[in-house]
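Submission sheet (multi-component)
Chains listed below:
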Amino acid sequence: MASTVEKFVIKTPCSSANIGPGFDVIGLALSMYLELHVTIDRTKTSSTHPLNCRITYEGEGEGTDEISLDPQVNLLTRVALYVLRCHDQRTFPLETHVHIKNPIPLGRGLGSSGAAVVAGVMLGKEVGGLHHLTLERLFDFCLMIERHPDNVGAALFGGFVGTYLMPLAPEDAARVEVPLSEVLPAPAGGVDTGVRPPEPPHGIGHHIKFPWAPEIKAVAIIPEFEVPTAKAREVLPAQYPRPDVTFNLQRIALLPVALGHSPPNPQLIYLAMQDKLHQPYRQTLIPGLTEIVASMTPASQPGLLGVCLSGAGPTILALATSNFDEIADRIIARFKQNNIVCNWKLLEPAEGTTVTRA
Ligand SMILES: Nc1ncnc2c1ncn2[C@@H]1O[C@H](COP(=O)(O)OP(=O)(O)OP(=O)(O)O)[C@@H](O)[C@H]1O
Ligand SMILES: N[C@@H](CCO)C(=O)O
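Outcome: structure written.
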């Protein structure tokens, strides 16, 4: 007989996008995890909680406006609800408790929103019993919400990935252009119109896994201030000089090969991690960024392979094989010259999202 209380844990890694030249293409899943501890108590016949869902939370942003405990507002549960409503399920099952443990700092360039979107899509699948949804199909749902595929691709599939979007048929293009408020029904204030949200077209995005040399670790230097991704995208130009585009194309062709080769070649990796498409423009939001990237080289720092902005920033990602403390201390000291306080973490490539049943 099926148990009346169902328990499972969804575990999703944080991620670093771009790794220098791979703007909106490359993602790396890293070993810091968002966890959802989910309990569905089917003995309950009614719930006092909106949408039959109670949220509790511990970790980054706890108690702040950034993390709502209302399932109609919280990013994670709204994403799960989007998946459910595309499958004609209007609420969570009676009665769902989602306990969120989140060590991923918010708005720092470590893919907190990507992890929340991926975990939310997986939550929708699991509570809805939607076993036919493959990881590839879940990726489509993620891409309706987070429009660049690099963070969500890494958080869903794990490892070091290249992601790409397919050209869409005109009717599908119209479907992915719908306002996000329609995709993620706004905090209801109650009225459920019963309207199905627009379903994602099939096969919007794809990914390919690249090898990763086992010697390479990631040092994440995390400033204490936030840079919302939307703001960090607003500072980018609409058009680029051709030499800058060529510069990035030359480096992106090297990057996956250089980072997969063992033993790593520091000079090649350092070269392959240079960027002209996003980091120079984001300097205005992240004081000291250009000097840090320019000053930290394998020649001046043993063990270092390369340095880049992590995602939209402000975190700096240093790839290295040794001397992790020394590398972190040097970058923290540079930030300190601009009165910016940081902490740091040593991370490793991680597997993708998992679901474990009790
Ligand atoms: N676990 C979570 N639960 C609910 N909302 C979350 C969670 N994690 C992140 N968010 C939302 O995502 C926002 C941060 O997203 P944003 O895209 O600006 O930064 P990021 O994803 O941390 O960085 P990047 O995209 O550069 O890697 C938070 O302010 C919060 O609203
Ligand atoms: N590729 C995205 C990642 C955001 O995390 C950007 O750099 O804006």
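Remark: The domain at 5-207+350-357 is CATH 3.30.230.10 (Ribosomal Protein S5; domain 2).
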